[in-house]
């Protein structure tokens, strides 16, 4: 009797569905994956929070919004806020020193008396 070949089939690696990444790097403290986004589609709001430095951001969501959208919104918002901070508003009107008006010719009324 010969040996029977065992059919040892390797199970094909089933492709696991990787859940969408909802942990991101924080803009402020630069910790990796410290920022988490929670989407509440029922309420229509998203909460972004950094568990390290406690930065928070809130936005509205719709059925198409993903965590990454909230994250990029947050980046935009933080970017804009930072720009405003670094560029203080100056009055548009130029207040450059005007040359002093030339003195009016003195009407010398010399009375020779
Ligand atoms: Zn942070």
TrEMBL record:
Main location: nucleus
Localization per Swiss-Prot or TrEMBL: Nucleus
Key words of the record: Elongation factor, Metal-binding, Nucleus, Protein biosynthesis, Transcription, Transcription regulation, Zinc, Zinc-finger
GO CC annotations, alphabetized: transcription elongation factor complex
Residue intervals passing through the bilayer: none
Bias type Low complexity, positions: 90-106
GO biological process, one term: transcription elongation by RNA polymerase II
Keyword Transcription regulation part of the UniProt annotation: yes
GO molecular function: RNA polymerase II complex binding; translation elongation factor activity; zinc ion binding
UniProt key word Protein biosynthesis: yes
Segments for region (Disordered): 80-113
Family: Belongs to the ELOF1 family.
Physiological role: Transcription elongation factor implicated in the maintenance of proper chromatin structure in actively transcribed regions.
Protein name: Transcription elongation factor 1 homolog
Organism, as annotated: Hypsizygus marmoreus (White beech mushroom)
Gene: ELF1
């Amino acid at each position: 009797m010969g040996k029977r070949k065992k059919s040892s089939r390797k199970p094909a690696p089933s492709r696991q569905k990787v859940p969408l990444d909802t942990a991101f790097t924080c803009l402020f403290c630069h910790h990796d994956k410290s920022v988490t986004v929670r989407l509440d589609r029922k309420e229509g709001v998203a909460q972004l929070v950094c568990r390290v430095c406690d930065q928070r951001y809130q936005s509205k969501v719709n059925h198409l919004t993903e965590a990454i959208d909230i994250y990029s919104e947050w980046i935009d918002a933080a970017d804009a806020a930072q720009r405003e901070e670094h560029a203080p508003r100056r009055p548009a009107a130029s207040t450059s020193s005007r040359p002093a008006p030339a003195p009016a010719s003195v009407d010398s009324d010399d009375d020779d008396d």
